[in-house]
Design goal:
The protein is α+β, with helices and mostly antiparallel strands. It contains 2 helices and 8 strands, in the order H-E-E-H-E-E-E-E-E-E. Strand 2, helix 2 and strand 3 form a beta-alpha-beta unit.
Amino acid sequence: MHVAIASRQPDRRGLAFAAALLLLLAGMWQLGGGLAIRAKAILAQILVRDAWERTLQGERQAKPWPWADTWPVARLSVPAQRIDLFVLAGANGRTIAFGPGHVFGTVPPGEEGNSVIGGHRDTHLAFLRDTKPGTELRVQRPDGVWRRYRVEASAVLDAADLWVTRQDGPTRITLVTCYPFDALRAGGPQRYVVFAEAM
């Protein structure tokens, strides 16, 4: 009987070790996925920067890589937060993996009206968490002209609140990302929206 008990002990330790190893590997897989998303976002902005330089030189719809279905439409800067981003055409999931995206149907960034820009809360638009009223935003248009905006307000809204895309009211930039910022899964029912009016 004593021999049988002794032979079971290593089995339990072996199972515990295997379970711990499996949990460690799963955690590394998840961490690696998160790091890959961030690395892709950073690398894409480098490639988009080159496409933006070509845009400023007059190239229309300068694609950052040959198979891209988007192109840079503006440069967004928040000097107080050391943010410098390139805004891409379109705000679908594929596009905003590489940078903030301009919502089609709203005026281009830097033009008269309401330009809506969307992006991920954990990469490009993560800075919105710390953006306060009074913060200055700058937008560079494809013709090289810079426009200045001041953050007036922010709000947590339902994802179905599409009134934020309306074109009435002052000239502004409306920045939209998922909320809460520290949610485990993106795309929940709430959005964090920052309204910045032209100065």
